[in-house]
Specification:
Oligomer: single chain
Order of helices and strands: EEEEEEEEEEE
Largest sheet: 7 strands, mixed
Low-confidence stretches: none
Strand content: over 45%
Radius of gyration: 13 Å
Mean pLDDT: 96
Shape: globular
Length: 114
């Protein structure tokens, strides 16, 4: 079973930055795509950013220009660099990887104070 381990969440003031990491237990090229989702209290889980096996990137409109998804193939790790954070970015952030199944990490809390 695939293991996805997130790290890097925390508390930051508005305008600050955080970098999330997602370490996979297997070669990330085995996945069709990997990405980050988030879920705020009382809201549905939503896509934040995704990177395909071929390197195509896609972002939610709400984070374009502020967040960047990237990967380190040698480390089997995907990152989410988050800049210019806003209080509305507060949520639990989940790593996701799709092969023949949907694979999820345990989530990491990001809290942005105003």
């Amino acid at each position: 079973q695939v293991q996805l381990v997130e790290s890097g969440g925390g508390l930051v003031q508005a305008g600050g930055s955080l970098r999330l990491s997602c370490a996979a237990s297997e070669n990330i090229f085995s996945f069709n795509y990997m990405g980050w989702y988030r879920q705020a209290p009382g809201k549905q889980r939503e896509l934040v950013a995704v990177i395909t096996r071929g390197g195509i990137l896609n972002y939610a409109d709400s984070v374009k220009g502020r967040f960047t998804i990237s990967r380190d193939n040698a480390k089997n790790t995907v990152y989410l660099q988050m800049n210019s954070l806003k209080p509305e970015d507060t949520a639990v952030y989940y790593c996701h990887a799709r092969d023949t199944r949907e694979n999820w990490g345990q989530g990491t809390q990001v809290t942005v104070s105003s």
